Prior knowledge:
Distance between the termini of chain A: 64 Å
Oligomer: heterodimer
Strand order of the largest sheet of chain B: 11-10-9-12-8-1-6-7-13
Strand order of the largest sheet of chain A: 7-11-6-1-4-5-12
Mean pLDDT of chain B: 96
Structural class of chain B: alpha/beta
Bound molecules: flavin-adenine dinucleotide
Order of helices and strands of chain A: EEEHEHEHEHEEEEEEEEHEHEHEEH
Amino acid sequence: MSDVLAVTEHRRGELRDVSLEMITAGRDLADQTGGDLHLAVISGDVDDYASQVNREGVDAIHTVEYGEEFNHDVYTQAIEQLYAEVDPQYLLAPNSVNGMDYAPAVAEGLSLPLVTDAVDLEADGGLTVTREQYGGKVETTIDVEEDHAAVTIRPAEWPVAEGDGDADVSAFDADIDESEIKSTVTGFEEVAGGDVDISEAEFLVSIGRGIDEEENLPLIEALVEATDATLSSSRPIVDNGWLPANRQVGQSGKVVTPDVYIAIGISGAVQHVAGMKGSDTIVAINTDPNAPIWDIADYGIEDDLFEVVPALIEEFGGEAPDI
Amino acid sequence: MKILVTVKEVAEVEDEFEISGGDIAQQYLEYDLNEWDDYAVEEAVQISEDVDDVEVVTATIGPERAEETIRMALAKGADRAIRVWDDEIESAGKLDVDTKAELLAGVVEEEDPDLVLTGVQAGDESNGATGVTLAEKIGFEWAAVVNQLDLDVEGGVANVHRELEGGVEELTEVESPAVLTIQSGINEPRYASLRGIRQAQSKPLDVQTLADVGLDAGDLESPLNQTDMYEPESEGDATVWSGDAEETAGELADFLRDKGVVEG
Ligand SMILES: Cc1cc2nc3c(=O)[nH]c(=O)nc-3n(C[C@H](O)[C@H](O)[C@H](O)COP(=O)(O)OP(=O)(O)OC[C@H]3O[C@@H](n4cnc5c(N)ncnc54)[C@H](O)[C@@H]3O)c2cc1C
């Protein structure tokens, strides 16, 4: 009754890091509730995944063999049945794109309150979940006033679990109703290829919505030219079609690890940070002193980019275009 | 065919703000159409332009103030709008995902759409869960984080791309009726034309109460209670260069030279 059940994630034959992070979050939570940590491993080579997630602190691993890849109709049925069997107090799932695709349905199906994108969990008596709002400008705490709950946890927020475990691994015989499978995954497609590989670059000048209009792009291009940098961006720039998809840094774009990353007019939303926090040195140019980018910046200029960038271009002997 | 698009008016926070009474104080908030809903509206309107006999209806939970945002969606081509609100909803305070989905389910029951489009998330609360919760409530199929949609109206199938992490897309077929949560970048949302804005004034905007969507005050009770809001302690210890733009740019230039990433 006070156990924790966490659903692991894999894709195209590879376990995803968030599975190991969830073990850390789940163990910590189970310690507070005084219960066991159970993991669910669904679809694909479940035995292989089970051995990979068999880390210190895991008490039981339940494998559900069914299909190769994630399918939310299968996941939803399997998790609901496993939940009934394990009878945990809390259900954890990753706040990944796939987590977003099944966790709300499972919570609804099981009549569990759902709190998404947790950055901290505390179970002192009841459950208190910390999460962010307004693009990371504020944090809130949410008290769950029911015994049971489902929570999705933010990727890369907890450390990955280390150490070999000796969990009970058992096959769970889920009774999947095929007539209830109404979505079919037909394949995968890699996007964002192309001429430039920003993940190889050592110096990235990256622009966000702060540049306001496509007409302002030549200003940034002049900086890129004067400094021999590589140009990258946050998502809205690509969404607007101002730069191609291979320039996007972030969760759904590329992970970059340059020596220097200059974030110009980028707020630092979590999905952006996911792609660039491994940069050696991060420099922010942003007018907003409360923008989350300041949490990870090493250096910064709190000023209007339209003032700073032309001055910077001049520093390197370039000429700022009239815009 | 009828497409229902959920449209949320979200609050955006000014650069400097204060928190009072458990939320950001009103005077620091500006309201706008949720970024992701804008893409959902555009997708629906594009379908209505491609396929015969498609009606696009928007559904919003929100106070009267939200009508400005709703008119924007109407100006962009939605045919009519529904806004759910009354005193009881007002006094219930912050609504959780389940309650919002419950209210929207009431609208779906009334409207009986073939397709429901929602944004992936709302820019203010960022729960990212209302669409899929709604789907499960109303017994529709669903797909979350859709960045490409090809609708086979005759076959009753939505062929979608779901945008996964790291530049990978999943190709999925979903049986309709379905709820799709729409990711930004799926299309290019149009600006409302002056003509559209004028026309929007005369399009129907129907206000419904809790009772109209078949619920009562008991349905607004939530097991989730927001107990605190605060500015996160900055983990950052950034060195912030000060001075006018010439000075700060000079500091940054020196830094880049010292680091050896830029010559000259
Ligand atoms: C499932 C999912 C996946 C996502 N994947 C990604 C991803 O891979 N990459 C990504 O980037 N986003 C991603 N996002 C979107 C992300 O949530 C944010 O919306 C996005 O990162 C915001 O981009 P931005 O910082 O450029 O814009 P904003 O958040 O609008 O920030 C603009 C910043 O510019 C500053 N500014 C404005 N004017 C000026 C000026 N004149 N001078 C200086 N500063 C100025 C503002 O203060 C603000 O901080 C994803 C979202 C979802 C839901």
